[in-house]
Amino acid sequence: MAKFAEYANKYQTIHMERRNGILQVTFHTNGGSLQWGLLPHREFTFAFADIGSDPENKVIIMTGTGEEFSGPRPPPSARPGGSPRIWDTIYWEGKHLLTNLLDIEVPMISAINGPALRHSELPLLCDIVLAAEHAEFQDSAHFPNGLVPGDGMHIVYPLLLGPNRGRYFLLTGQILSARQALEVGLVNEVLPKETLLPRAWELAEQLLRQPPLTLRYARVVLTQELKRQVHDLLGYGLALEGLGALDAPAPKE
Fold first, then answer.
1. CB atoms within 10 A of CB 76
2. Strand order across the beta sheet in which 189-191 lies
3. pLDDT (tens digit, 9 = 90+) per residue, 59-106?
4. List 43, 68, 93, 121, catalytic entry
5. Are 65 and 32 within 8 A, CB to CB?
């Protein structure tokens, strides 16, 4: 079992603070909005494992820093891969990134503080999803950037939006505003940015009124179908994404 003192300051891209069993996890890059890359891809994988194995965590709040939750939109030159050996690391981390998140057996609340352009499936896998008024959702890193929409995108968005809307979203690079996300059921509440975190803490404290095992087992039962789909489909999507990445055109001279 992990202890908070052992992992609280372990990660460069995650700030953690805990009060009365409520753990706030704040993503960042050098104190600013999270800039997605290999480092957070690796760190989140292990951080979720640490968080999930600490019995003192009763409710988790996931949020970001500054005006964006995660970004930026990647240029074509940022396409990962290059060889099976390089992709194998991305494949392993990509699988455990989502499985470790879903293995956190206490309720999770996401407070999406701005546009979520990279790995926007992560906050959507929380049990309660709050968004700032200027938040947006897009899968900017995959099909618009010449990659198969794997990494769990092929699971989460068709599941939450429905098959047809999910495929449209992934294949067109669609951007959904916070209000549109509310209308289609991706988020539960849209709030002014200044009230976003206070509302997340209010809900977390409300959840804490339940007995500890009720909290834990509620998360377990409500994520069982998600975990089944991730188990069945995540590795396959990552493998196809890797094959597609190896088919990148040769650079122009």
1. 11
2. 14-19, 22-27, 59-63, 108-112, 128-132, 189-191
3. 999 999 999 999 988 876 666 666 788 889 999 999 999 999 999 999
4. 121
5. yes
Backbone angles phi, psi at 70, to 5 degrees: -160, 140
- 7-39 pLDDT per residue, tens: 999 999 999 999 999 999 999 999 999 999 999
Chain centroid to CA 172 = 21
Residues near 187 by beta carbon (within 8 Å), at least 6 away in sequence: 112, 129, 130, 131, 135, 178, 181
pTM over 0.90: yes
Q: Is 253 an annotated catalytic residue?
A: no
**C-alpha dihedral (131, 136, 142, 148), degrees to nearest 10:** 70
Phi-psi region of 173 (alpha: psi -120 to 50; beta: other; left: phi over 0): left
